[in-house]
C-alpha cells in the first residue's frame, strides 16, 4: 500500500492529436478545439476540481517527418501537427483557477535566455507563482533547419548549451533583483531602489548577457524545473537541476529501472531525494465498471491510426517503419536498431511475439507509455501498484480522448484516491513549488540555481 | 466638423510608468498592478464598454540609460522599468471580451520569425482574429547588448532586416497553408490534406526558412500591421506595410506635417489611402467641468517626476539632460542637437522660451505628445479639431493615471462622441481588421503580404 501522496500532472499539448494518434476521429474527442480559449479554460477548471497539481503543455517546433521520409503522415493524421505556442494558453487557464500549476515546454536551443527569462517571470507574475518550465534541448532536425541552422546540434553539445542557458536564467531570476528592491514608495517617489538591481555580467561560451533582468522578481523567482531526458547526459542534467522528472515506460519493470538509475544519479549530488519527484506517463481508460471500461477501450481502438502512430514513432525513435509489413514479427526483422528500440515492448509480456501492426496499435493509445483500463477502483489499485512497485511519485496523465479521459479520471478515480488519502482534498501551498514540496516558494538553498554568482546580491 | 468615425486605440505597456513619469505616485494610479491578471482583465472590459477599437501594448527590451549615463533614474522612477512581456497579457484580455482588438509590439531584431509567426497565429486563434502586430526595429543599445551583440545594428540595416522578416512572416501566414487544408474529416480520418500545406523555401540574407508554418491559418492570417517609424526609412516601411500608423506630436501643426508626409509616401505605392489609418497619441485629462479638469491637471502635475521624465526623454531622443540646470533656457543652450530635438516644443507657442525644467514638465504627462484637459464636451471638441486640422484618423489614448484616465474617457467622453456619430455604438466586424476597415478579415489583395511567392498556393 502506498503511504505517500500521489502527484498528479495532466499532459496536453496545443495541438489536436497528442499521444493517441487517430483518436481525434472519435465522436467524443474535442482535441481539435485546441485553438479555442474555451477548451483550455474548461480543462483548467476541471483539473483544479480534480486537485491535479499541474497541467503540463508539451511542444515541438517541427513536424515529424521520419516515417516515409515525409511529414505527410503526421499532417494527414493531425499527429502533433499543426501545433501552436504553449505559453500563450497559460494566462487563460490561470485566470480561472487559483491553485493549479502550469508546466510549459521551452527549448534552450531556439530562444535567447534574456527574452525567455522575461517571459517566464511574466507568467509567474500573472499566475501568482504557479509556473513550471520543462527544459528541453529539441530533438527534431526539422525544427533546427527552420531556425536557420544547417542541422541539429549534436546531442551532447545541446546539453552543454542547456547548462549555460539555465545558468543565465538562474542569474536573471535569482540574483539580479534583490527581494526588497521594489519599494513602491509613493511618498518619497521611489519605485525601485537602483542599488538593489544588479547586472549579471554573464560572459560564457554561448551567451553574453551583461545587464540586469528586465522584470522584477516573481513569487517563485525560478519556475519549478521539469525535465524529461532519458539519456545519460539527460539524466545527469535532470539529477542536477530538475524538481520534477517525467519518465515514460510501457511496463512497471522498465519504469522501476529508470527510477533506480535516476535516484542513483541524484544520490551523487548534494540534493536530497525529496527534492526530486518522478512522474511516469500513463493513459487511464476508466469505465463505471470493468466491462464498461473494456467496452470503451475497444471503441477507442477502432479509432487508432496506424499512419499517425508510425509518424509519432518515427519522430520519437528515428525509426522509419514504412518498409515493413503490418504482420511482420519484430523478432524476425533483420534490423538491430529496430529490435533494440522495441525491446521495451517485449517486456510487457516476454512470451509474446509482437508484429509491426501490434506495435502501432500499442502506440495508438497513450504513445510509448501505454494505457491502463478498468473500473475506478481497479484504476486506483493499479496506480497504487505502479507507485509501490516502481518508486514513482505520481503520474503524468495523458488522454485517449480529451477532455473525456480527464473528465472520467477526475469524476471517477480522484474521489477514490482522495478517500484513500493519496490525493489531497484541497490545495495548501502558496505557489506551485510550495504545493509540490511544502518548503516555500523558492528553490531550496543548495539547488544549483542558488549557487551561481551569489556575490551579486549584497 | 468631422464627418468620419474616429478610431480609438488605448495605449498601455506591461510596466508601471508608461508615458507619464512619476504619476505612479498619485494615490489613484494603479499602474503598479501591471503584474496582476486582474488589472488587464478590468482594463479590457472597460475599453470594450467604451467601444475602443483596440488596446495597444508597447514594449522595450532594455532600460533607458542615457540620462546620467545610467539606468538608475529609470529604475528609481519606475519609468518603463521593470517591464514584462506584452504578448502574455493578450489571452487574459481576449477571454473577457468579444470585439476589442490587441496590438502587441515585437521587434524584428530579437526573435526568429519562424517562432514569432507561430506566436502570432496562436494569439489570432485564441482571440478569434483580434490581433495586431506593431513592427519595431528596437532602438535601445542596452537591449542589443543583452542579446549578445556588440552593439545596436545600424538604423538603415534594421529596416533591411525588417523587410526580410515580414517577408518570412507573410509567407508563413499567407501562403504555407491553403484555406481548405484542414479537413477535420472524422469519417475518412483526414485531419489535414498534406497536399495543401506548402514549404515556403525562404532563403534570404538574414533568414533561411525552408519549411512550412507550424500552425494552421488563423482568422486574419496576417495580424493587423501597426508601425510607428518616423524616419524616412521608417515612413517608407510604414507606407508599404502598415495598416495603422502611430504618430506623436505635441502640436496639431507638427501632426499635420507628419500626416502630409505619410500620405504622400502612401500615394507613391499601389495602396489606397483608405487602407492606412493614422492615429496620434494624446493624453486626455477629463473633468466633469472645465474647472474640475484643470484642478485634476494641477493635482497630476504635482506628481510629475523630473528624474523620470529625463530618463524617458534620454531614451527617446538620445539626449542626456543631466548637464543642464532646470532654469536654463533652451534657446541659449549651445548644443544644436538639443535645440533641434526640442524644436517641436517651441511650435506649441512660438513666442515662449522653454526652460529645461519646463520641458521635463511637458514630458511628465503624456510624454512627447502632450495632453489636453477639459470638460467632456471640450475634449470631444478638441478631438474633432485634431482630426479636422491634421488629417489623423483617430487617437492613441495614453494615460496620466491608470485606469483613471481610461475610465474618465470611456464614461464621460465616449458617450458624447457616440452622440455625434463619431464613435460606433456597437462593433460590427468579424475580426480586428474587419472592425477597422470593413473589408473582411484578410489583408487587401494588393498588400505586399499578398504578393510574395504566390505560386506556392495552387
Automatic annotation (TrEMBL), chains A, B:
Q: Where is this region: Disordered?
A: 438-458
Has UniProt tagged this entry with the keyword ATP-binding? Answer: no
Q: Which SUPFAM superfamilies match?
A: Bacterial luciferase-like (SSF51679)
| Database matches in Pfam families | Bac_luciferase
Family per record:
Belongs to the NtaA/SnaA/DszA monooxygenase family.
Keyword annotations of the record: Flavoprotein, FMN, Monooxygenase, Oxidoreductase
- This protein's species is Virgibacillus siamensis
**Identification of the protein by name:** LLM class flavin-dependent oxidoreductase
InterPro entries in UniProt: Diverse_substr_monoxygenases (IPR051260), Luciferase-like_dom (IPR011251), Luciferase-like_sf (IPR036661), NTA_MOA (IPR016215)
Cell membrane as a keyword of this entry, yes or no, is no
Q: Where is each Luciferase-like domain found? A: 27-393
Amino acid at each position: 500500500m502506498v503511504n505517500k501522496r500521489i502527484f498528479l500532472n495532466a499532459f496536453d499539448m496545443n495541438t489536436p492529436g497528442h499521444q493517441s494518434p487517430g483518436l481525434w476521429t472519435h465522436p467524443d474527442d474535442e482535441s481539435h478545439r485546441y485553438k479555442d480559449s474555451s477548451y483550455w479554460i474548461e480543462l483548467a477548471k476541471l483539473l483544479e476540481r480534480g486537485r491535479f497539481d499541474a497541467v503540463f503543455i508539451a511542444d515541438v517546433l517541427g513536424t515529424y517527418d521520419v516515417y516515409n521520409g515525409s511529414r505527410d503522415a503526421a499532417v494527414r493524421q493531425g499527429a502533433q501537427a499543426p501545433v501552436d505556442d504553449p505559453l500563450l494558453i497559460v494566462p487563460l487557464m490561470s485566470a480561472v483557477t487559483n491553485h493549479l500549476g502550469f508546466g510549459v515546454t521551452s527549448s534552450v536551443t531556439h530562444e535567447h535566455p534574456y527574452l525567455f527569462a522575461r517571459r517566464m517571470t511574466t507568467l509567474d507574475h500573472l499566475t501568482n507563482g504557479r509556473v513550471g518550465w520543462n527544459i528541453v534541448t529539441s530533438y527534431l532536425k526539422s525544427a533546427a533547419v527552420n531556425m536557420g541552422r544547417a542541422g541539429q546540434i549534436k546531442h551532447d553539445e545541446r546539453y552543454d548549451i542547456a547548462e549555460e542557458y539555465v545558468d543565465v536564467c538562474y542569474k536573471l531570476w535569482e540574483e539580479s533583483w534583490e527581494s526588497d528592491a521594489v519599494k513602491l514608495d509613493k511618498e518619497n517617489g521611489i519605485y525601485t531602489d537602483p542599488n538593489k538591481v544588479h547586472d549579471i555580467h554573464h560572459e560564457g561560451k554561448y551567451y553574453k548577457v551583461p545587464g540586469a533582468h528586465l522584470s522584477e522578481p516573481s513569487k517563485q523567482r525560478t519556475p519549478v524545473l521539469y525535465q524529461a531526458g532519458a539519456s545519460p547526459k539527460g539524466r545527469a542534467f535532470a539529477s542536477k537541476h530538475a524538481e520534477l522528472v517525467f519518465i515514460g515506460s510501457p511496463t512497471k519493470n522498465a519504469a522501476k529501472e529508470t527510477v533506480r538509475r535516476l535516484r542513483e544519479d541524484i544520490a551523487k549530488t548534494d540534493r536530497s531525494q525529496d527534492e526530486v519527484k518522478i512522474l511516469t506517463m500513463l493513459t487511464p481508460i476508466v469505465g463505471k465498471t470493468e466491462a464498461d471500461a473494456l467496452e470503451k477501450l475497444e471503441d477507442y481502438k477502432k479509432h487508432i491510426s496506424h499512419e499517425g502512430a508510425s509518424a509519432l514513432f518515427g519522430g520519437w525513435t528515428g525509426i522509419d517503419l514504412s518498409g515493413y509489413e503490418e504482420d511482420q514479427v519484430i523478432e524476425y526483422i533483420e534490423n538491430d536498431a529496430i529490435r533494440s528500440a522495441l525491446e521495451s515492448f517485449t517486456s510487457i509480456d516476454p512470451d509474446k511475439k509482437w508484429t509491426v501492426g501490434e506495435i502501432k496499435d500499442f502506440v495508438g493509445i497513450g504513445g510509448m507509455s501505454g494505457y491502463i483500463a478498468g473500473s475506478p477502483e481497479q484504476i486506483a489499485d493499479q496506480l497504487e501498484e505502479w507507485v509501490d512497485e516502481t518508486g514513482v511519485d505520481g503520474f503524468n496523465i495523458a488522454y485517449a480522448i480529451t477532455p473525456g479521459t480527464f473528465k472520467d479520471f477526475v469524476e471517477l478515480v480522484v474521489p477514490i484516491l482522495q478517500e484513500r488519502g493519496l490525493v489531497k482534498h484541497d490545495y495548501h501551498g502558496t505557489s506551485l513549488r510550495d504545493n509540490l514540496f511544502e518548503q516555500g516558494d523558492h528553490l531550496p538553498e543548495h539547488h544549483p540555481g542558488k549557487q551561481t554568482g551569489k556575490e551579486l546580491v549584497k
